[in-house]
Amino acid sequence: GLLTLLLAPHYLGEITLEQPTLTLLPPNDKGGISEVGDRPTPVKQRQAPASWWERRSLRLTVRDGRMQAEQAADTTPRLLAQGVELGGELAQGTFSYQLAFHGGDMGGQFRAQGFVNLPTADQPWFPSLISQTNLEIRELQLEPLLELAADHLPRVPRGNGILNATCRLRMAGTNQIELEGDSSLRELALHGGLLGPDHPRFSQLLFRFQGSRHPAEGWRLTRLDLQSEPLRFLARGFLDQQRVDFTSQGEADLA
Fold first, then answer.
1. What is the 3-state secondary structure (H, E, C) of 208-244?
2. What is residue 10's three-state secondary structure?
3. What predicted TM-score, i.e. pTM, was given to this entire model?
């Protein structure tokens, strides 16, 4: 209340959203907005004062939220997430959070926790973000997700399967990314898209991965260890704008 604000003037309080719904709209077919006219000549800026998120603190709570995606006209939106529970806190320019939800039409359960270091006032927004996320996925049905992706990206195959995964994602801006984790897929069946006439099926796939992206070296796959019956596959390498260099080895048990 007022007493809290008087004792801690930099604390803005707590925002609570009950049963909010976030709707994702389809891509705009008209394309992006083009720039018109001459660009202004850059001028030397004085040092900017601290942003409000560096000087203020607050808490954010979301209870029983939903996320859905609009599809074609006159169709029911696809439910992507339900039972969304979020607890977050902003303090000294860092937003820490814990997130949990059920996968809507996809089933499964999601849990994530991490932080985002917001940029200072004189830094560009996205290139200066620093974040870390620990993500856990349990019993996710892939069919609705693949259908949604294939509707917008024709080369993405359709199919079904059940995903379990744990991974850690670290990002510095949009150019430095580190990703590692373990995943398993059960009852995976794919068709269409870049697969053409092929219809691969796997009763179970287990894979461990570790990779990164840095401006000086592009994408680097430190480790990819994939196992299924009767295959085992290991790979590593890197990819940049000039070249692709991958090494791999595999074995098959044909007994």
1. EEEEEEECCCEEEEEEEEEEECCEEEEEEEEECCCCE
2. coil
3. 0.71
CA nearest 214: which of 168, 169, 247, 174?
Answer: 174
CB 89 within 8 A of CB 42: no
Question: What are the residues facing 157 on neighbouring strands?
Answer: none
Look at residues 59, 67, 60 and name the one whose alpha carbon lies nearest to residue 83. 67
What contacts 176, CB < 8 A, 6 or more positions away? Answer: 212, 213, 214, 215
Average pLDDT, the chain: 81
Q: For residue 148, how many C-alpha atoms fall within 13 Å in the half-sphere facing its CB?
A: 19
Beta bridge partners of 170: 132, 178
Q: How far is CA 122 from CA 55, 163, 174, in A?
A: 15, 42, 18
**Residue 240 corresponds to which tokens in the numbers above?**
């940049």
Report pLDDT digits (tens) over 84-114: 999 999 998 899 999 999 987 778 899 999 9
User: Do residues 160 and 187 make contact, with C-beta atoms less than 8 angstroms apart?
Assistant: yes
Terminal CA-to-CA distance of the chain, rounded, Å? 72
Up-side HSE of residue 185: CA atoms within 13 Å toward CB?
A: 18
The CA angle 167-172-175, to the nearest 5 degrees, is 95
Question: Two tokens at 59?
Answer: 């808490």
- For 192, which DSSP code? S
Q: Model confidence over 124-159: pLDDT tens digits?
A: 777 788 999 999 999 988 888 888 788 878 888 999
